[in-house]
Amino acid sequence: MNQVIERDQLIKKWIYAAAAIIKESFNDKLDIERKSNRNDLVTNMDKTIEKQFIEKIHQFFPGEHILGEEGFGDDINHLDGVVWIIDPIDGTLNFIKQQSDFAIMIAIYENGKGQLGYIYDVMQDKLYSAQVGKGAYCNDVLLPIIEDKPLKEGLVAISSALMSKEEGLARTVGRASSGVRLIGSAGIETAHVASGRLIGYLAAYLAPWDIAAGKVIAEEVGLVYTKLNGEKIDLLQKNPTLVAPPTAHKEISALLKTGKK
241: closest CA among 189, 192, 198, 195? Predict the structure, then answer.
């Protein structure tokens, strides 16, 4: 079997199995820990799922590197070779508070270039996936190349951190769009841009595991994924991010630079 096909089938199998475990946990009391602040939380489920993914990767693809949000992977300081980038539960606060709007995310990069990306919106049962050069899919249905619309014709997602940190600039972008939406999951928001439900997504700072899968998917449908200032994403650090179709990306970048409508 082609190794890419084998990886794809295994990853999808692992994701669906992890989602089933997460759903079963709704009936149990979660162990919740605070990380950097009261809105940055981790649960026993985040840790359990990441450990399970890492065990599977070690079993089937020994020697490949792993970067995981909860720190059970490798100490990564370069992207040489094959690197798996994992977010076991993206939108942990939503998972805890709402039991919805959270995702499982897995990406594979080779020598710094995205090869495979997966975002699974668990409660909506929507698996967004992409292989570089082969297009992006939602539940195995090919997503069309995104329509290159201007900012004013679409809804924009802005992270709560960006809204509070750069309130004036964020509001400027929001006023120039059709409206603002906040979901609280970088993966789901990126997937909604990739599927045309949103015109763009802006975030104050996203970690590599928040970015990696969505970047592969976004670029396969013609979106531009950069830092807020237009610079290239650095998957070894946190990034202020912007993903949008080319025209809206240029418009948002200009608004952020000038601070004027």
Answer: 189
Residues 10 and 66 in one domain: yes
Q: Which residue segment(s) compose the domain that 182 sits in?
A: 151-258
- The whole-chain average pLDDT of the chain stands at 90
Contact 177, 49 (CB under 8 A): no
The model carries a pTM of 0.93
Q: Give the tens place of pLDDT for each residue, 142-160.
A: 999 999 999 999 999 999 8
CB 107 within 8 A of CB 213: yes
Domain co-membership, 161 together with 94: no
CB 110 within 8 A of CB 82: yes
**How many domains is the chain partitioned into structurally?**
2
User: Do 108 and 248 form a contact (C-beta atoms < 8 A)?
Assistant: no
